[in-house]
Amino acid sequence: MEVMKSLSDVADSKQQQEQQQQQQHFHVLAVDDSVIDRKLLERLLKGSSYKVTCVDSGDEALKYLGLIDHDDQKPTDSSSLTSPYPQQSSSEQEGSKVINLIMTDYCMPGMSGYDLLKRVKGSSWKDIPVVVMSSENVPSRINMCLEEGAEEFLLKPLQISDLKKLQPYLLKTLDQPSSSIDSSNNLVVEEIGDDDHDGQSKINEEINKGSVMNNTNASSISKRKAVTTETSDRIPKMKGLVVA
Amino acid sequence: MDAVAQWRNQWFDYTHYLRREGFLDDQFAQLKKLQDENSPDFVVEVVSLFFQDSEKLLNNMARALEQNVVDFKQVDACVHQFKGSSAWIGAMRLKNVCINFRNYCEAQNLEGCLGCLQQVRQECLALKNNLENLFRLEQQIVAAGGSIPVME
């Protein structure tokens, strides 16, 4: 009995750790030409325990995603002291980059957020959710972006509550069928997916608790539910043994 | 009444004044919520960054408006950015001046634009002074061993 208890406790805290790790795996690429906006975005996202990379233009975003040849890349103007710009060192291969969400400003000099959205959706990164932000509430602009495949259109200034809207898209990226993701992303998706099913069940619970799912995600949720019903009945027993 | 209580009262009076006069709106309270033990100086950092950035933007606007042939689109782009930044920190009066400014840009009204630029500079200075006062007050509260009240 005692032995089983402690094993369960260990397993349970391992579950929590895994869940935390999965949350910490969420990497957001934030694209905005304004230094203030980048600072605020970074703070908001880090406050939700996401890892953030900020870039100041659509071009820089494409370079980061490896969609532009960056042989002759110069270091970007680091006007933001606090946002680390991606270092294009030779040691970091494209294949190791993981992005779970792209957030982009709409109005940017040069490449607009809409242009960036189109580029991303027409690339191997097309399954990565893209959220467009703007300080202007222009319905035609919003529709245009949503039609082009943006998951969400958020009005600036963003609130802490807006971040809750992002969660379903991020969680969805954990559930992506590997075929639709560029091979560079497969690595991480499989890593997470191959963890014991308890990790997935825990996420499933979180989603149900959150109840912020929109209809498009419903089918993927029910799929996941079907997969994990076998393991889910273990959860109540383990929950009972959780040391809070 | 002890020192902390006095400073805190002053803080309430001052923030009410700033809200009433439109210097700050609810967004500033949201900004404060982002400050915590992990980012204890967040608000001051953002505000400093704002004033640094605004200096740059205002200079760009001034330069653009001095040209023989004024590129109103360029001025508008600067004002748009400035308006966005002002909104993030809850600088309501600044944001409102920017709205007027953009209207003048659209109408390609040079005089109107120059007037707005002047107004923006004045509002910026006033806001800077007000925020410096507020932060000083907060420092005094903390130095006296108290905690800064939560902004509603």
TrEMBL record, chain A:
InterPro entries registered for this protein in UniProt: ARR-like (IPR045279), CheY-like_superfamily (IPR011006), Sig_transdc_resp-reg_receiver (IPR001789)
Give all 4-aspartylphosphate modified positions.
Answer: 105
Per UniProt, the ranges with Polar residues bias are 76-86
UniProt xrefs under Pfam families: Response_reg
**UniProt xrefs under SUPFAM superfamilies:** CheY-like (SSF52172)
User: What keywords appear on the UniProt entry?
Assistant: Phosphoprotein, Transcription, Transcription regulation, Two-component regulatory system
Domain (Response regulatory) ranges: 27-171
- Where is the signal peptide, in residue numbers? none
Q: Which GO terms describe its biological process?
A: cytokinin-activated signaling pathway; phosphorelay signal transduction system
User: What ranges does the record give for the region Disordered, renumbered to this chain?
Assistant: 1-25, 73-94
What name does the UniProt record give this protein?
A: Putative response regulator and transcription factor RR-A-type family
What is the species of this protein? Answer: Rosa chinensis
Give the taxonomic lineage as stored in the record: Eukaryota, Viridiplantae, Streptophyta, Embryophyta, Tracheophyta
UniProtKB/TrEMBL annotation, chain B:
Which GO biological process entries does UniProt record here? Answer: cytokinin-activated signaling pathway; phosphorelay signal transduction system
From the UniProt record, which GO molecular function terms apply? Answer: histidine phosphotransfer kinase activity; protein histidine kinase binding
Keyword set includes NADP: no
Quick check: keyword Hydrolase in the entry? no
Q: Give the HPt domain ranges.
A: 39-138
Give an example GO cellular component term for this record.
nucleus
Q: What is its main location?
A: cytoplasm
**Cell compartment(s), UniProt:** Cytoplasm, Cytosol; Nucleus
Residues recorded with modification Phosphohistidine: 80
Q: Which UniProt keywords apply?
A: Acetylation, Cytokinin signaling pathway, Cytoplasm, Kinase, Nucleus, Phosphoprotein, Transferase, Two-component regulatory system
Q: Which SUPFAM superfamilies match?
A: Histidine-containing phosphotransfer domain, HPT domain
Q: What is known of its domains?
A: Histidine-containing phosphotransfer domain (HPt) contains an active histidine that mediates the phosphotransfer.
Report the function annotation for this chain: Functions as a two-component phosphorelay mediators between cytokinin sensor histidine kinases and response regulators (B-type ARRs). Plays an important role in propagating cytokinin signal transduction.
What is the recorded name of this protein? Histidine-containing phosphotransfer protein
